Structure formats: C-alpha cells, structure tokens
Amino acid sequence: MRLLVTGAAGFIGSTFLRVALEARPDDELVVLDKLTYAGRRENLAGIEDRIEFVHGAIEDRELVHKTMAGCQAVVNFAAESHVDRSIADQDVFARAHVIGTSVLLDAARDHGVTRYLQVSTDEVYGSIEEGSFTETSPLNPSSPYSATKAGGDLLVSAHAHTYGLEAVICRGSNNYGPRQYPEKLIPLCVLNALAGDSLPVYGDGRQVRNWLYVEDFARAIHLVLQEGASGEVYNVGGPDEVENIEVVKRIVELTGAGERLIEYVRDRPGHDRRYSLSSGKVRALGWEPLTHFAAGLERTVDWYRDNEWWWSPIRSGEYREYYERQYGRSLTG
Ligand code: NAD
Ligand code: TYD
Asked: Which residue's CA is the nearest one to ligand 2's atom 6?
C-alpha cells in the first residue's frame, strides 16, 4: 500500500509513522507537511530514509494532487493544534482544517483513494460535566480550534455520504508523550520544571482531561485505517481522567522541582471544563490502551530529560516569543 500521511512531522503523526513502519514494513509512506513551528524534521530522525518527504500545505491543490497520485490511502494529521493560539488568531486554523480538508477530500475522490482517515479530537463534542461522549453525541465545539476541526469532520462525513468516499474519522482525547511541542500543558510544565521556571495553571486547575499516551492513539489510528467501517466515527479515549493541578503536581514530583513553582494564572477564555470519551467502538475492533497515565508520564519526563538536543532549539526560538505573548513573562535560560 502507498499511504499519504499529512502533518506527520508533528507530534502524533511522527509517532504514527513509526507504528505503521513497524506493523507493515513494506508499505510506502509519503509525508506532506508544511513544517509550521510545530512541524519538525527532527521528529523524523531515524526514519527519514524510510519515507518520502514533501514540503507543503494541504491547502495547495496542485501540490496535493501531485503528491496523492498513486496513493491508495490518506491519513490526515495536518492541523494547527493549540487552542490558545486559535483564540489569538483563528484564520490559519480555518484554512488548514476546513479548506485543507476539502482539498484533500476532492483529491482523494479524483485519485480513487480507497481509504481516507481524518484525525480529529474529542474537543469537537465540547465540554461534559458527567459521563462520556459517544460517537453519536452532538458536536458542540467551544474554541476556534475545535470549531474548525468540527468543520473538517463534517466535510469528511459529507464526502462519505454524497460521493461514497471510503472515509473514517478517529477522535482522540488529549495526547501526551515524546516529541510534543512544549506549548501544551505537559511538556510545557516538564521543561519549565527542569529549568526552574514557574508552572502556569489556568483558573482553578480543576479542569479534567482524558489522557491518552501517543503510541496508544497511533495504534488505534492504524487499526481503524485497516479495520474501521466506512463512513464511521471512532472515539479513542485514554484510560485515565486527571485534573490539571494533579498533572502539574505529579510533574513536580517526577522532576524534583518544588511546588512553589506552581502559579495560578488567568483562565483561558471559554475554557472547557472536562473531556471524556467512551471508546467501546474502537475497543470492539480489538484496541486497548496499553499505557496508564502514571507510567506514561514518567516515560515522558524521562524522554524530555534525555533529549535536550530536541527541545533546546525550540526553547530558544519562536516558542520563546510565543511564551512571552501568552504568559506575559520570559523563560529563563
Ligand atoms: P502538531 O501541532 O504537533 O503537528 C501538526 C503538524 O501538521 C505539523 O507537522 C505541522 O507542520 C503540520 N501542518 C500544520 N498545518 C499544515 C498544513 N496546512 N498543511 C500541511 N501540514 C500542516 O499536532 P499533533 O498534536 O501531532 O496533532 C495531530 C492531529 O491530531 C491534529 O489533527 C490534531 O487536531 C489531532 N489531535 C491532537 C490531539 C493532541 O492532544 N495533541 C488529540 C486529538 C487529536
Ligand atoms: P492543552 O495541553 O493546551 O490541551 P487542550 O487545551 O487541548 O486540552 O491544555 C490541557 C489543559 O491544561 C487545559 O485544561 C488547559 C490547561 N493548561 C494550563 O492550565 N496551563 C497551561 O499553561 C496550558 C498550556 C494549559
């Protein structure tokens, strides 16, 4: 199989490439990635010679057609992935998630692609106080990030319905693990704790996220790509729900930093209180999460401790300026 994987220089896509190469070493993998601040060639270290890399955006119709020629399947990871950035500037989110998805779907139809998988998020369902979202829960996104992701999902369903495109959607809960850009809660706090910088907790810190180790999500996506029923949505939720303040306290323990680094800061506008997914449908295909939060977080902290070569250029570049804009203070070092 020749597979086009978009956005695979990012956190989850680069993990998916490793899972896919391990499971089906003879598949040909073509990566199309715009290399935004979050897309990094370093994420492909060790597998560069096993993939074909094309630099460009999924909104670029001509390039997408050229790159998709000869591919039987498409997995779309390409996205702007950070909620806080979407609150500051949503245009690039709409372009990537809505226009980009539309271009990919048109091309998939033209090239007779037999399997299209859209990587999406639990955030399209909005916040839930009790219980868990199923695949039939209504979409009720709260942020520009989740609203534009929902727009992409609806286009995928429309293409499956109208044109019979063999499309599936995988909605994952919050991922964590190696190679996640440090704007997200876990790597941000790990790197700040290691550097002695403060750990910013939004609002009261009692918001709940349903943490999913990145390899577990990548395995679910690979399984749904092979076994998922066309036109269907599959929720992929992590095994543990944890309050943010608890996550930050565990990072303090694992890094040996002091709790005095924890700082409550202004809440995120429109902040979703709790996410929770029910994953019975993907479990019925044979998937289960293998990594619980305690073990996964320890592994993640170890990875960041051991891979300064990966994060030190990030902490001295674009991220530094972003951090100052977002948090109104500078990083040390
Ligand atoms: P990421 O920000 O680490 O990576 C995104 C990648 O997409 C980068 O390599 C970037 O260069 C590329 N990209 C961005 N815009 C592009 C465009 N217009 N054309 C081509 N490439 C483009 O994100 P991630 O955390 O790896 O997320 C991957 C996917 O998984 C996204 O679709 C996201 O919505 C979804 N998702 C993420 C999480 C999470 O917790 N991170 C959870 C569920 C679903
Ligand atoms: P984040 O990693 O941005 O993922 P998402 O917004 O997709 O859930 O945030 C995870 C949780 O942590 C969310 O409730 C917001 C909170 N948070 C903080 O409290 N402080 C921070 O500095 C960041 C980035 C997030």
From this structure: 83
φ/ψ (deg, to 5) at 104: -60, -40
3-class state of residue 279 by DSSP: coil
Is 132:237 a contact under the CB 8 Å cutoff? yes
Structural domains present in the chain: 2-173+212-236 (3.40.50.720), 176-209+239-270+291-319 (3.90.25.10)
Q: Point out the residues that are catalytic.
A: 122-123, 145
Distance 165 CA to ligand 1 centre (A): 23
Atom of ligand 2 minimally distant from the CA of 145: 7
User: How close is the Cα of 226 to the center of ligand 1, in Å?
Assistant: 21
- Give the ligand at the shortest distance from the Cα of 97: 1
* Burial class of residue 141 (count of CB atoms within 10 Å of its CB; 0-12, 13-18, 19+): buried
Region class of 219: left (phi > 0), else alpha (psi between -120 and 50), else beta:
alpha
- Per-residue pLDDT tens digits for 13-37: 999 999 999 999 999 999 999 999 9
The pLDDT score that the predictor gives to residue 332 is: 87
